[in-house]
Amino acid sequence: MSTPAIEIEGLTKDYPVGFWRQRMHRSLDHLTLQVQDGEVFGFLGPNGAGKTTTLKVLMSIIFPTSGSARVRGKSIDDVSMHREIGYLPEQPYFYDYLTARELLDYYARLFGFAASERRERIIRFLERVGLGGAADVQLRKFSKGMLQRVGIAQAILHDPQVIFLDEPMSGLDPVGRREVRDIIHDLKREGRTIFFSTHILSDAEMLCDRVGVLVGGKLQGVGAPREIVSMEVYAMEILFETPEGHPLPNSLAKSATQVGGRYRAEVPEDQLYPVLDELRRCEARILSVTPLRPTLEDYFFKLVARDKSAPPQLVEVGAR
Ligand SMILES: Nc1ncnc2c1ncn2[C@@H]1O[C@H](COP(=O)(O)OP(=O)(O)O)[C@@H](O)[C@H]1O
Ligand SMILES: [Mg+2]
Questions:
Q1: C-alpha 43 chain-centroid distance
Q2: Domain that holds residue 25
Q3: Which terminus of the chain is more solvent-facing, meaning fewer CB atoms within 10 Å of its CB: N or C?
């Protein structure tokens, strides 16, 4: 098998806390994870889970307490690795009075592109993220979605093979989120590896080959979204209408709820046929029968709820 795009081994980060900074708060606890070449990997977790900390360690913005990581086989300590990756920080701050073109020109210079190449590349990447018409508009006039897209253009300007995005959809409306999803889809089609953090589960479900769920600094589960949530059906949902004036069958009298002139009921799988028979007897019209399966959201909430009962992790300085 080829070298994984990202290999994280036992990554741990403690931050000093308290007035005297004599205690350490463990924000990341022995994270071990691999992302394969060409995968879109969703790094999920509630606020404070340690997602940004992980990305900052991988970007060498902060140093790990222990553990190591490699991207495309190169250690994160290796400066040359950083030329091959793209990064969108969680809340990118760009100087308001620059235009999109000027901002990207600044980054393109950092990457050492010559003037003619910079000109061509900047317009090509602005078009790619749907900002071709806004090249000469100052960033202070950009919407949040436009800023996020210019941030993505910055992250991919040098054609990196591995791209790290910290909460690329946060704060965006459904249209903005869709635009960012489409950009990520395009990058995947080109064979790039994308590692992005999010707390928006529906986006992760739509985009990711695999997800990892981080809670309280610990990785709680990794897998394809459909794999990690159990595929077991937990109930059957029945939507039906009853003829005018007909009472509900006894078995549903308590549990069915009325929505918009029709009824909705959830019944255990083994009760489905007896309940359908009763509905037939009272001449109900069945609109749909749908098996209910747990979603990524149900799975996520279960993990988060389990962690809430655990005390915060404090370690003595001596244990550093
Ligand atoms: N510079 C810091 N000093 C002390 N604690 C920090 C620092 N940065 C983050 N933390 C703590 O580390 C934990 C993880 O934070 P973060 O990585 O930002 O989570 P996420 O991105 O998943 O919301 C939180 O408890 C946060 O308060
Ligand atoms: Mg964060």
A1: 5
A2: 6-84+160-228
A3: N
* Triad 309, 64, 199: Cα angle to 5°: 45
C-alpha distance from residue 126 to each of 48, 86, 94, 114, 317 (Å) = 33, 16, 16, 18, 48
* 58-82 pLDDT tens trace: 999 999 999 999 999 999 999 999 9
In terms of Cα–Cα distance, which of 108, 107, 128 is closest to 118?
Answer: 108
Q: Is 198 in the pocket of ligand 1 (CB under 6 A)?
A: no
pLDDT digits (tens, 9 = 90+) for 178-218: 999 999 999 999 999 999 999 888 889 889 999 999 999 99
Q: Which two tokens stand for residue 178?
A: 């869709």
Residue 45 lies in a domain: yes
Whether pLDDT at 230 is above 50: yes
Q: Ligand 1 within 6 A of 45 CB?
A: yes
Whether residues 261 and 216 share a domain: the answer is no
At residue 320, does pLDDT exceed 50?
A: no
- How far does residue 213's CA lie from ligand 2's centre (Å)? 13
Q: How many domains does the chain have?
A: 2
Ligand 1 lined by 53 (C-beta under 6 Å): yes
Residue type, 77: D
